[in-house]
């Protein structure tokens, strides 16, 4: 894993002077079969590739020169854990890495202190240095579950952002007008609504764009909500005499509800460090229609294999079988083949009303205790109100018997409590 803290060769600690002469592009090269294959891999599942003809030429020149392209993904460590939605763009990075190109996993330790305003309707508070460093360490570890860590260049944008100082920051800010910044939908909506926009938020896309200059990026990846920021990087590279990067945006993966973007705050996520049986069960809970989108964005199966799966379902095969294959692939990737096999066994057992083998054991006191309070103390429900709703919906069982009385007082003893389809606990309750 490359982690050198070297200052980029083409960027000094202060802003380089703008070049009057823009770089001239070399003559067009023919696209070999290998280049066309690489282009097809790149385009799989993407929302946009800008500009495709330019990227095709970058691939052709890379093949001719033997010099890999520099492909950048920047992530601000705003939370300690990643979910499958985050891995959509990481999967694309891995595909490009397997094609032989240099992928750069950029930790936005500097930009995190500004706070990305993308998709926000309020100012987001910046993180502390301690929070950023703690989250970044987790990101390193979790991203390597997808990327080939030994071939990944890991950088932090504080390397070139901190040395800018006030003078460099002002010079950088002079390269973009307020009018162009206000072209962003989120800024425009907040301005019209009278919602505050802090001046420092204008700096975020500029600093992200400057990252592309510092890293001499050939291609930058991001979600569809990052398009404006990625375009700023492309324009700044032109200002500094570099050939502009191409831009690849990936769709935002819907969560388990099939409606909203996967998000921990919406509780519709699949965490990549969750236990294998939980991951498996969550994937099995998605709709048969949404399954194909998950295949396209998360699976490493070939497009030909996915087409065969669709044909089999159209001819009468149970889509559940295809979903099992996806669930096993994902669990294997983030855990192991054995974990995937165990998860399937566990899922089948639960679907028949059985109790899994790996039920966590808890010791609680206070009997007799209300069932809602018991579920909360056992961390099977987030609150007593949620626990009562689960009882009302018939989603709570004690020793396989459905609990229908939300005022039930649970007596001392040892029993297995189940909430919903996936939450179990073996509880020993004492007075």
Protein model, in words:
The longest helix is centred in the middle third of the chain and has 17 residues, at 199-215. Helix 11 (276-284) crosses helix 15 (337-351), helix 12 (288-298) runs parallel beside helix 14 (319-334) and helix 14 crosses helix 15 (337-351). The protein has 17 helices and 13 strands. With 431 residues, the chain is α/β, with parallel strands linked by helices. The strands form three sheets. Strands 1-6-5-2-3-4 form a six-stranded mixed β-sheet, with helices on both faces. A five-stranded mixed β-sheet has the order 7-13-12-9-10. It has helices at 33-43, 52-65, 84-98, 129-143, 158-161, 165-173, 178-181, 185-193, 199-215, 227-239, 276-284, 288-298, 303-314, 319-334, 337-351, 371-377, 384-392; strands at residues 48-50, 70-75, 102-107, 152-156, 219-223, 246-250, 361-365, 369-370, 396-398, 401-402, 409-410, 413-419, 423-430. The chain has three domains: 33-250, Rossmann fold; 276-351, Tyrosyl-Transfer RNA Synthetase (Orthogonal Bundle); 361-430, Structural Genomics Hypothetical 15.5 Kd Protein In mrcA-pckA Intergenic Region, Chain A (Roll), CATH 3.10.290.10.
């Amino acid at each position: 894993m490359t982690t050198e803290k070297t200052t980029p060769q083409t960027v000094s600690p202060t802003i380089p002077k703008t070049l009057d002469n823009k770089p001239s592009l070399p003559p067009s090269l023919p696209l070999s079969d290998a280049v066309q294959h690489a282009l097809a891999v790149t385009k799989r599942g993407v929302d946009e590739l800008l500009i495709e003809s330019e990227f095709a030429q970058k691939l052709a020149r890379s093949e001719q020169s033997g010099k890999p392209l520099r492909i950048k993904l920047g992530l601000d460590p705003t939370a300690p854990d990643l979910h499958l939605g985050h891995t959509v763009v990481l999967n694309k990075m891995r595909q490009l890495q397997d094609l032989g190109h240099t992928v750069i996993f950029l930790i936005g330790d500097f930009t995190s202190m500004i706070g990305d305003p993308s998709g926000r309707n309020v100012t987001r508070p910046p993180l502390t240095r301690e929070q950023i460093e703690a989250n970044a360490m987790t990101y390193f570890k979790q991203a390597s579950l997808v990327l080939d860590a030994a071939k990944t260049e890991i950088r932090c944008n504080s390397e070139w952002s901190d040395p800018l100082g006030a003078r460099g920051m002002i010079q950088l800010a002079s390269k973009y007008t307020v009018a162009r910044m206000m072209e962003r939908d989120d800024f425009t909506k907040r301005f019209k609504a009278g919602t505050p926009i802090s001046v420092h938020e204008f700096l975020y896309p500029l600093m992200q764009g400057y990252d592309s200059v510092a890293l001499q990026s050939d291609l930058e990846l991001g979600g569809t909500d990052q398009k404006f920021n990625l375009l700023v990087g492309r324009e700044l590279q032109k200002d500094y005499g570099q050939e502009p990067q191409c831009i690849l945006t990936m769709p935002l993966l819907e969560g388990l509800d099939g409606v909203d973007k996967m998000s921990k705050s919406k509780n519709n996520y699949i965490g990549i460090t969750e236990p294998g049986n939980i991951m498996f069960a969550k994937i099995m809970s998605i709709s048969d229609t949404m399954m194909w989108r998950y295949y396209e964005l998360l699976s490493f199966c070939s497009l030909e294999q996915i087409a065969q799966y669709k044909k089999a379902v159209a001819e009468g095969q149970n889509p559940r079988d295809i979903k099992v294959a996806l669930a096993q692939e994902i669990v294997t990737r983030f855990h192991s083949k054995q974990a995937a096999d165990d998860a399937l066994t566990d899922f089948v057992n639960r679907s028949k009303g059985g109790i899994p083998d790996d039920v966590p054991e808890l010791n609680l006191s206070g009997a007799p205790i209300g069932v809602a309070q018991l579920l909360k103390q056992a961390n099977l429900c987030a609150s007593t109100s949620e626990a009562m709703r689960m009882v009302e919906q018939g989603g709570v069982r004690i020793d396989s018997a459905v609990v229908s009385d939300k005022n039930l007082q649970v007596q001392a003893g040892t029993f297995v409590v189940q909430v919903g389809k996936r939450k179990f606990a073996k509880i020993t309750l004492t007075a």
